[in-house]
Each structure stands twice: as structure tokens, then as C-alpha cells.
Specification:
Helix content: 25-40%
Strand content: 15-25%
CATH class of the largest domain: Alpha Beta
CATH superfamily of the largest domain: Isopropylmalate Dehydrogenase
Largest sheet: 12 strands, mixed
Number of helices: 12
Number of strands: 12
Length: 327
């Protein structure tokens, strides 16, 4: 059976991306599940190899026809951008560079020249310094693929969540929670679960307010938007229930009551998820016409280029990308 070709974007040059990629590719499971290569700057990847002390040689390539998997070698689709970059800090040049890596990866995926892309973390500040308006990877990928309906899903062995709202201020969340958004996310939850083999997922929806609103006593978003959305999804044949109080739903899911939790906003879902799976969780963008996974951590600028970064989440992101199938 031919292994899948996985494109790994290098991520923020001054962050931990290059380091965790090198460490992940040294893991024995990766070569067994896929044929990986990097899209980024070959010289920076050489520096990352030197930093880790791992037995790799970097081979720059200019197109995928030159891809030749070999033990002890990492092929890098070499994209040179303005430098120098600043280790441990965001920069305008870094913002321009990471977008060029991602654009190339998306182009290859849309042409079916790679099976999936795995993205190392990027800095939102670098994007802003470079003049881009995307607040992060998810919105950037949606824009490049002209995707209207998409969501962030976070995957670990014991807990899987999907977010109704993403990178918006907390004060704006109630105004963004409506029947259309919640129903879209429930549908994407079913689609996302199917991408990694759960055909009829048991989906639970979290309330927005404490105690899921307590029948309208502590807020009416559940009554106005969340419950109607769930009823429509059930009529569509989706196995979904709720809303459940946010302070109990994740515990129930962790113990096997549900396959996936629909969370109303970023930190509602990410705080319990990262508490349980900080080193092994994987971020998946659901709704795209391509497969994209990423480590669930950020650029780690405080520990960048110090050989301190843990590659576990990158390893899991690559392995999951190799398993997933588009739905």
C-alpha cells in the first residue's frame, strides 16, 4: 500500500516549529504511516537539525518530482523569503514567509499532489506586522480554499471538541451565538468525526451560560438559539443532545458518554481540552476541501531555539493526518 504524502509547513521561523518538526520526523511511527516533507526554508531547517543534534541531512528540492524518501534525510521544498528572522520574536518577514509556505501547501493539496497538510504554529502578531488581516491559520486556510462553513476541531484519545466561535473577544460571543451558527457546527461535527472513522457520532452540545441557563433564569441563549438548533439537527438524523451545563459536559465526554462536544466559544472548549491533552492534542480544520491538522500549541517563542520543545503534538498531528479521509 502506497503511503500518503504529507506536506508539513515550517511555521514561524523564530518559533518552535522547525525544532518540533525535526524531532517528530525522528519518531519511528512517522516513516511507517506516511511520506512527509517540509515546505519552508532549507537553511533554517539545517539550523534546527544542528540544534537538536539529530542525525538528519537536509535536502532542498524545487518540486515534488524530486521527492525521494530516505532514512536520515529530510526533503524541504525550499522557499526563500526575506531574512533575517528574529529567533524568539515575531516579525514582518516571518509573517510574509509563513503565508508563502501555507499558500504553497494549499495549492499542492487542492491539486491532490499531497494527501494532507500539517501546519506548524504561526504568530498572529507576525501576520499583522506583515499587513495580513487573517487572525490565524484557520481563517487563512478558509480564505485560500474559498470555504464558507468551517470550524476548529480538537482531537485527543479521550476528548474531542468543536468550536462554534473561534477568535473573537469574549464580550462578542453571545451576539454571535445563533441558530444558524450552532446548526452549522453540529453538522460539521458529524462530518469531522466521520473523517477519522466515527460514522454515527454521539454529539453533545454545551450551553453558553452557567447551568445551561437554568431554564432561562441565568440567560436565554439556550432557549432562543441552542435548543432549536439541536431539534433541527435531530430531525436531520444527527445523534445530538443537549444543551448540557458547561461544567459537567467535558467530564462526561472524557469518560466516554459522548464522542464529541460542541463548544460555544474558544476557551470554553480549549481550557478543558488542553488541561487533559496539552502535549498530544491535535487541531483539525473541518469543512475545508483538504485535510489539515496542526499541533494544538502555539509558537512557543519563550522557549524557541533552545532545544526545549516537546514534539508530541506534532507527532500526533502527522499521524492523524495520515489516517484521515475527506468526507
Amino acid at each position: 500500500m502506497k503511503t500518503k504524502i504529507i506536506a508539513i509547513t515550517m511555521g514561524e521561523p523564530g518559533g518552535i516549529g522547525p525544532e518540533v518538526i525535526v524531532k517528530a520526523l525522528h519518531h519511528s511511527d512517522i516513516g511507517k504511516c506516511c511520506t512527509p516533507f517540509i515546505i519552508g526554508d532549507a537553511e533554517i531547517m539545517r539550523d534546527a537539525v544542528k540544534l537538536t543534534g539529530l542525525p538528519f541531512k537536509i535536502r532542498p528540492i524545487s518540486n515534488l518530482s524530486q521527492l525521494r524518501p530516505a532514512k536520515g534525510r529530510i526533503d524541504v521544498l525550499d522557499i526563500k523569503c526575506n531574512s533575517p528572522f528574529i529567533n524568539g520574536a515575531p516579525s514582518k518577514n516571518a509573517g510574509r514567509a509563513v503565508v508563502s509556505y501555507i499558500k504553497k501547501a494549499v495549492d499542492l493539496a487542492l491539486k491532490n499532489e499531497v494527501s494532507a497538510i500539517v501546519t506548524a504554529p504561526i504568530s498572529k502578531e507576525s501576520l499583522k506586522m506583515a499587513g495580513y488581516k487573517w487572525p490565524g491559520h484557520t481563517e487563512l486556510l478558509a480564505g485560500l480554499t474559498h470555504t464558507k462553513d468551517f470550524a476548529m476541531m480538537f482531537v485527543s484519545d479521550r476528548l474531542k471538541i468543536i468550536l462554534c466561535t473561534i477568535h473573537i473577544p469574549l464580550k462578542d460571543v453571545p451576539g454571535k451565538i445563533n441558530e444558524k451558527v450552532i446548526l452549522k457546527t453540529i453538522r460539521l461535527a458529524k462530518r469531522g468525526a466521520g473523517m477519522f472513522g466515527i460514522k454515527n457520532p454521539c454529539i453533545a452540545v454545551a450551553g453558553l451560560n452557567p447551568h445551561a441557563g437554568e431554564s432561562g433564569i441565568i440567560g436565554r441563549e439556550e432557549i432562543i438559539s441552542i435548543i432549536p438548533s439541536i431539534k433541527i439537527a435531530v430531525k436531520e438524523g444527527i445523534n445530538v443532545t443537549g444543551p448540557y451545563p458547561p461544567d459537567v459536559i467535558f467530564h462526561k465526554a472524557f469518560n466516554g458518554a459522548f464522542d464529541l462536544v460542541v463548544s460555544m466559544y474558544h476557551d470554553q472548549g480549549l481550557i478543558p481540552f488542553k488541561m487533559l491533552a496539552f502535549d498530544t492534542g491535535v487541531n483539525v480544520t473541518v469543512g475545508l476541501p483538504i485535510i489539515r491538522t496542526s499541533p494544538d500549541h502555539g509558537t512557543g517563542l519563550d522557549i524557541a531555539w533552545k532545544n526545549k520543545a516537546n514534539p508530541s503534538s506534532m507527532i500526533e498531528a502527522i499521524k492523524l493526518a495520515a489516517k484521515m479521509e475527506l468526507m
